[in-house]
């Protein structure tokens, strides 16, 4: 197979089915955009089925859609030295430290602005309702998203003991298997498409446990399991996985939920905050 995925697609083009050629045409015309799309979004935008995309990847000797996105991200055709969000390119272009810092700032501001534009006030209110009514709230995520889930737990732990964070995937699914409809899961997944995520959310559904999902893709596998979906901004390339800018939008949503929860449970939260602040103060010099 050619080292460049677009050259490989060109080589295989005449062997593709009509639907696969339609997909290939879309990829050629929207190469840079394609690397940021979920499989559901690519299917919708290109006018083919997800099954066609899966077969397309296999014909290119790729293990799946994620490997395809990585290959697209690596392709020479997608390299644009003016792209402000890919700092590895900025470094390769010989940017000064000042320029790199400015691009980092721009990326984070962009993430916040995009997340704010996507903010659904009714969805936030539904999420706050679920959090307020839950006996226990499990803050879950996998990989880099587990770090964001821990941030959510740390933030809410200042005002409530109901919030629980578990980092291990096996322990998460065990907890989900014992959860009830009176509990809730606050789940973080930028892509909304991982095997561990699907197994966990399938278990939550079987237990009828409400799920609040924070993700970038409204049409993802995770969204199918969620009771409420909150969208974070910022287009993260597969080569940028775990970027701070992508997490910035998620942190903004955590703060929105926190403020909504505090407002809904003001007196209890004030009392809890006073107690936790006093406890922590004793540890300070």
Q: What's the total count of β strands?
A: 5
Secondary-structure element order, N to C:
HHHHHHHHHEHEHEHEEHH
Helix content, binned percent: 55-70%
CATH superfamily of the largest domain: Glucose-6-phosphate isomerase like protein, domain 1
Total domain units? 2
CATH class of the largest domain: Alpha Beta
Write a structural description:
There is one protein chain. The chain contains 14 helices and 5 strands. It has 285 residues and is an alpha/beta fold. Strands 2-1-3-4-5 form a 5-stranded parallel sheet, sandwiched between helices. The chain starts with a helix and ends with a helix.
Put the structure in a nutshell.
The chain has 285 residues and is α/β, with parallel strands linked by helices.
Name the features.
single chain; 285 residues; alpha/beta; Arc Repressor Mutant, subunit A; Rossmann fold; 2 domains; 5-stranded parallel beta sheet; 14 helices
């Amino acid at each position: 197979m050619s080292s460049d995925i677009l050259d490989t697609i060109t080589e295989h083009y005449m062997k593709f089915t009509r639907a696969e050629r339609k997909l290939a045409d879309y990829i050629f015309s929207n190469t840079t955009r394609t690397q940021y799309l979920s499989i559901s979004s690519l299917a919708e935008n290109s006018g083919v089925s997800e099954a066609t995309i899966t077969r397309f990847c296999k014909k290119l000797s790729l293990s799946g859609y994620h490997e395809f996105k990585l290959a697209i991200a690596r392709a020479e055709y997608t390299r644009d030295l003016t792209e402000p969000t890919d700092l590895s390119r900025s470094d390769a272009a010989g940017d000064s430290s000042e320029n790199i810092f400015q691009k980092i700032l721009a990326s984070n501001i962009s993430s916040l602005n995009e997340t704010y534009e996507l903010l659904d006030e009714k969805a936030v209110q539904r999420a706050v309702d679920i959090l307020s009514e839950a006996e226990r709230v499990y803050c879950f995520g996998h990989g880099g998203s587990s770090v964001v889930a821990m941030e959510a737990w740390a933030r809410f732990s200042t005002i409530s003991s109901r919030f629980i964070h578990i980092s291990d995937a096996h322990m998460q699914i065990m907890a989900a298997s014992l959860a009830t409809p009176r509990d809730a899961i606050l789940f973080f997944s930028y892509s909304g498409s991982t095997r561990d995520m699907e197994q966990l959310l399938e278990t939550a559904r079987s237990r009828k446990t409400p799920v609040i999902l924070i993700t970038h893709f409204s049409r993802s596998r995770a969204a199918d399991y969620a009771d409420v979906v909150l969208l974070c901004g910022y287009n993260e390339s597969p080569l940028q996985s775990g970027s701070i800018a992508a997490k910035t939008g998620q942190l903004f949503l955590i703060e929105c939920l926190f403020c909504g929860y505090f407002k809904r449970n003001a007196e209890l939260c004030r009392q809890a905050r006073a107690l936790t602040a006093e406890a922590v103060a004793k540890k300070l010099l």
